[in-house]
Every structure is written in C-alpha cells, then in structure tokens.
Amino acid sequence: MSFDFVIVGKLSLALFLGMLIGIDRQLKHKPLGLKTCMVISVASCLVTIVSIEAFHLFATPTFSAMDPMRLTAQIVSGVGFLGAGVILRRSNDVISGLTSAAMIWSASGLGIAVGVGLYFASLVAVVLFIIAVNIVPVIIKLIGPSALRERDVFAKIVMEPNYIMTDLLQAIEKREGLNGKIKGVD
Questions:
Q1: Residue (of 12, 38, 14, 45) closest to 104 by Cα position
Q2: What is the pairing mode between strands 88-89 and 95-96?
C-alpha cells in the first residue's frame, strides 16, 4: 500500500479549516472549542474519503449499485446530535448555543467538502462563516434598525422580607449606582 499525499492533504486542510472555526468559538469562550471543531472536520473528511474510496475499491461492472455518498449523508444527521447537545434553554427562556451548533454542523460540512475535493468551495465557505459570525452582526448593529442595537436585560431581585418595595423602586429610579450596581440596595 502506497502513501497517499492527496488523502493526507485533504485531512490536513480539513484540520486547518476546523481549527479556524474552533479558534473563533474559543475566543468567544463558547462550549464548542478548538479541539472539537478540528476533530469533527477531520472525521467528516475521513468518512467522506472512506465512502468515496470504498466505492472505487468495491464497485465492479456487475455490482455498481453502491452509493458513494450514502455514508457521507449519515454524517449530516449524526453531527446534528452533537449540535443539539450544545443548545441550552435557560430558566429565563433564553436559548443559547445555536451559533455553536451551527458551527459544529459547518465544521462537518467543511470536512465533507474537503473529502470530496471541493477545496476552493471549502476555503470560501470558512471565510464566509467567519464573516457571518464576526463581521456582519457588527455592521447590522451599526447601520441596522435600532431594535437590533437594543439588548434584553433580565434582573432577578431578591429582597429581605422586611424590605419595603417602594424604597427599592425609588433607589432604582434614582440610578445612583455605577456599573449596574445601585447604592444602598444589596
């Protein structure tokens, strides 16, 4: 068996592209990080290579009913379960982790694209993913509708049983605090 530089190149490119997605998530302190994205991308690339190579190795003129992309199609649904694992619903009905789930799926797609040999498409895609996650939201906040610049803030206030509610409301209305803290209110 000979050493195949094309396969090594494909796997290495998948590692690199997964690393770019992982760095983005890691810099934002997200649960999905560098190692996870690289492993997903390389594994997806590997499964795609295996699927295509198995077709070339085992298909014969009399037995060619094999589908070289069947195994690759299973990656998409399998990685969906990983993505679902990072989506969280918090007690205040805020859902988080959707972008990380999308990035897991994207890392998988990059691996599949590299495994098939669509190198330019995968390079363009990773650039577009990073632009979509990092640059477009900033632009939208700057030039988009004002509703997109607003942030929802939820506060939970726990009061002692003998504390008077009107005193609390007056303290909040005076805005005496700095950095989100109100003087006189614990």
A1: 38
A2: antiparallel
For the chain, the domains span 5-147, 155-186
Share of the chain above pLDDT 90, in %: 1
Say if residues 112 and 72 touch (Cβ distance below 8 Å): yes
Residue 123 CB burial class (10 angstroms; 0-12, 13-18, ≥19): middle
pLDDT in tens, 96-150: 787 888 888 888 888 888 888 888 888 888 888 888 888 878 887 788 777 666 7
Alpha carbon 109 to its chain's center? 12
Is the distance from CB of 83 to CB of 109 less than 8 angstroms? Answer: no
